[in-house]
Amino acid sequence: MAKQLPEDFEQLASNLEALDYYAILRLDSSVDYIEVRAQFHKCAQRYHPDRFLGAAFDGDRSKIYAVYKRMTEAYRVLVDPELRVAYDEGLRVGATRLDPDIRARRLTGDARALTSSFARVYLNAAKKKFDAEDWQGAAIDAELGLSVEHADVLKDLHTEAVRRMVRSRGPK
Amino acid sequence: MAQDHQFVLGIDLGTTNSACAVVQEGSASVVRRGEDRIIPSMIAARADGSMAVGLEAKRERILDPVNAIYSAKRLIGRRFSSPEVTKMIETVPYKIFEGRNESVMVGFGSRKLSAVEVSSYVLKYLRKMAEEALGQRIRKCVISVPANFTDSQRSATRISARLAGLEVIRIINEPTAAALAYGYIEDMDRRIAVYDFGGGTFDVTILEITQNVFEVLATSGEMFLGGDDLDEAILGAMIEQFNEEHGIDLREHPVARARLRSVAEELKIELSETAQVSRFIEGVLPDQGKSLNFSLTETSLRDLIGPIVNRTIPVCEEAMKIAGIRAEQIDEIVLVGGTTRIPIVRETVRAVFNRPPQTSINPMSVVAVGAAIQGAALVGLLVPMADGGVSAPSMNATAVLLDVTPRSLGVRTLGGHVDRIIERNSVVPVEQTRLFTTTVDNQKYVRIEVCQGESPSFDDNTKLGEVLLSGIRPARRGEISVSVTFEINTDGLLEVRALDSQTGQEQTATMKVLGGMSPEDVDAMISKAESEGLLGEDGHEGSVVRR
Question: Least CB-CB distance to B432: which of A51, A103, A149?
Answer without folding.
Answer: A103
